[in-house]
Amino acid sequence: MIAPAGSTAAAATTPTASSAAAKTDEASKGFEQLLVQQLAQEMLKTVGDASASDDGSGGGASGLGGPYASLLPTALTDAIEQNGGLGLDLGLGKVGS
């Protein structure tokens, strides 16, 4: 016998709107995180250029050219994400609607 459409077996195999919304929220957050990380990397490049031109040593007084410079974009991205992100509502879940 085939189960009626309203049964729990049919409901278990059909994705719910909340799980679809959660997936789009997760995708939106992931995109925002990637965007922030790329922006932070570009900002670090400009700071490195400015510190190199100050005294010609390339490292600058702040030490941004040191071994930890590659960790700064990730740390900045994580801090922004932990504090609620940038507030970009890109509407990724509304594209197909």
Rg measurement, Å: 23 Å
Proportion of β residues? under 5%
Count of separate structural domains: 1
Helix-and-strand structural type: mainly alpha
Specify the overall morphology.
elongated
Termini separation comes to: 35 Å
Order of helices and strands: HHH
The unreliable regions are none
Helix content: 55-70%
Number of strands: 0
Count of helical stretches: 3
Mean pLDDT, all residues:
72
Q: What composes the largest sheet?
A: none
Summarize the structure.
The protein is built from 3 helices and no strands. It has 97 residues and is an all-alpha fold.
Would you kindly provide a written description of the structure presented here, covering whatever features stand out?
- This protein is mainly α.
- The chain has one domain (18-85).
- The protein contains 3 helices and no strands.
- α2 (17-55) packs across α3 (72-82).
- It is elongated, with a radius of gyration of 23 Å.
- The mean pLDDT is 72.
